[in-house]
Write a structure and sequence with these properties.
mainly alpha, MetI-like fold, 1% strand
Length: 276
């Protein structure tokens, strides 16, 4: 009897904790969306109004009278190129580190990880000078290169663990049958780590989509991304909260759609290796 009561109490406590954590996580995007469908008067009311007449005027203004689609297209180009290149190069590097032993392999892996440890703000001035000398300022290519530099080590270390979970015997049997190493990687290893590949792609996509510092320093009027476009609603005369929150809500849509479509693979990828 005591065990049943104890189990019910633990379940109730777990549900309460889950509800609290879920509320904390969902509260900011909910407030963001509610503010985006308020008028300026309702948005600036204190205490906040929770019952109001919704309006879509902010979304209409953002889409019709601001270069929001330009910012969206720039972000999609930069993030898509970066994610694709990271997955290709990262999977090759991770497979090499997971399967081949050579002198300096551990040092090389740690050096790659150290790039990720470096604070981006510490390297922003040298990066700006390099991009200026290469004439890549205010172009999507500057952001693709920089995002690749910082996201590739993360992808390599993440996928390295996925490849290590695959039994070597599977690939060795294919090699005995005459399969080349590259073909074994392409036809055997990659399909087996597809969930991990999807998880890495989603996380890389999100990191690149939300990045603000390098977009602020390296872009101007020709290649601004969504984070740069959204802060454009902060002006000397004040902040257009309706337009800013509408732009923020629209910026969430591609990430949510991408995550929902790959949710199955994301869950499998993040739990690979948790159970044997």
């Amino acid at each position: 009897m005591n065990e049943i009561v104890s189990a019910k109490i633990k379940k109730i406590i777990l549900l309460v904790i889950t509800a609290v954590v879920g509320t904390v996580i969902l509260f900011p995007p909910v407030v963001l969306f509610l503010t985006s469908i308020k008028t300026d008067l309702d948005a600036l009311t204190f205490p906040p109004k929770w019952i109001f007449q919704p309006t879509l005027q902010n979304y209409a203004t953002v889409l019709r009278f601001s270069p929001f689609t330009k910012y969206l297209l720039n972000s999609l180009i930069v993030v898509s190129l970066n994610t694709g290149v990271v997955l290709v190069l990262g999977s090759l590097a991770a497979y090499s580190l997971a399967r081949f032993r050579f002198k300096g392999a551990d040092s090389l892996a740690f050096w790659m990880l150290s790039v990720r440890m470096m604070p981006p703000v510490a390297a922003i001035i040298p990066i700006f000078i390099i991009m200026r000398n290469l004439r890549l300022l205010d172009t999507p290519w500057s952001l693709v290169i920089i995002y690749l530099t910082f996201n590739l080590p993360f992808a390599v270390w993440l996928m390295k663990g996925f490849f290590q979970e695959i039994p070597r015997e599977i690939e060795e049997s294919a090699l005995i049958d005459g399969c080349s190493t590259l073909r074994a990687f392409r036809t055997i290893a990659l399909p087996l780590v597809a969930p991990g590949l999807a998880a890495t792609g989603i996380l890389t996509f999100i990191f690149s989509w939300n990045e603000f510092l390098f977009a602020l320093i390296l872009t101007g009027t020709k290649a601004p991304t969504l984070p740069m476009g959204i802060i454009g609603y902060m002006k000397e005369t004040g902040i257009d909260w309706g337009y800013m929150t509408a732009g923020g809500a629209l910026a969430l849509i591609p990430v949510l759609v991408f995550a929902v479509l790959a949710q199955k693979h994301l869950v499998k990828g993040l739990t690979m290796g948790a159970l044997k």
